[in-house]
């Protein structure tokens, strides 16, 4: 596949719900309780922007949708009352067979980006957008019959609603994804809502685990690549993670300085434990029972740096190179015991899962690309695709 360049205008960019409320909010509004559905989306050219309509509280920003046939994708940017800090975007990447199979409905993979990323992160490795340091989902899914939905999730939202947002700066990212983006996709594309999976890297890994258990009726498969799974502050790694969640909303200020929320706007300055516990994977183990659960992380091991220098001549060059990754190593070093504690708790509870810690690997997209490539066949099997 040849991926052509795209202009910035085109691709730049608390209580746990009951089962009844969940299904009503995400499916009933679009007539999706009886699956599969064949009449909810146009059978015309998916790369004709006129085939798409606003719905579920999402209003298109001028100039969108933007079909990108070379990438088998359509980009959407919307205004929504649920997210007022900036107009969020999402990319929908279609199976190669989609255009020529008008009577077929497809499963959906919700793929979440990491902290500081955006809706292009999982395709940047081949499209050249942003830093170009990202995933290769377009080519990786070329022969897979699945619709991949890659939404904005805010720079540091951790895919939670912001319960303490400033007036006029609502940032309900969880509601945006579950009650707006997914129903929009089901209404505008030929999907099978009964076959969905969620996956993500770093912050997106937490998001996959968190939303995967909160909305357990939606997702068959849940995957976390270097995703934290315990935000309780009574451990060193959990305490550091809690601090990151507190700071998280302020990360938006880099791109949107006049509309970003400040630290503490997600769960409050005291990180309200009653709210946090509804999101925290390790406190909701039973909600993973019967799901396909895929967990991967590195060890972020930079303690053995001195050993790595032995037998090499240019120590300065090695030190300079190592400086580039020390931050990533520290982050992955926090993820590793956190995710392993979650995996151990799953084992103790007798809940099936697939967890591996990959020694010598750090917190970077090369690892997550490999994780996704390893994970994808299992996702497709769980989705019966």
Automatic annotation (TrEMBL):
<keyword id="KW-0012">Acyltransferase</keyword>
<comment type="similarity">
    <text>Belongs to the mycobacterial A85 antigen family.</text>
</comment>
<keyword id="KW-0732">Signal</keyword>
<dbReference type="Pfam" id="PF00756">
    <property type="entry name" value="Esterase"/>
</dbReference>
<dbReference type="InterPro" id="IPR029058">
    <property type="entry name" value="AB_hydrolase_fold"/>
</dbReference>
<dbReference type="InterPro" id="IPR006311">
    <property type="entry name" value="TAT_signal"/>
</dbReference>
<protein>
    <recommendedName>
        <fullName>Acyl-CoA:diacylglycerol acyltransferase</fullName>
        <ecNumber>2.3.1.122</ecNumber>
        <ecNumber>2.3.1.20</ecNumber>
    </recommendedName>
</protein>
<keyword id="KW-0808">Transferase</keyword>
<dbReference type="GO" id="GO:0050348">
    <property type="term" value="F:trehalose O-mycolyltransferase activity"/>
</dbReference>
<dbReference type="InterPro" id="IPR050583">
    <property type="entry name" value="Mycobacterial_A85_antigen"/>
</dbReference>
<feature type="signal peptide">
    <location>
        <begin position="1"/>
        <end position="41"/>
    </location>
</feature>
<dbReference type="InterPro" id="IPR000801">
    <property type="entry name" value="Esterase-like"/>
</dbReference>
<dbReference type="GO" id="GO:0004144">
    <property type="term" value="F:diacylglycerol O-acyltransferase activity"/>
</dbReference>
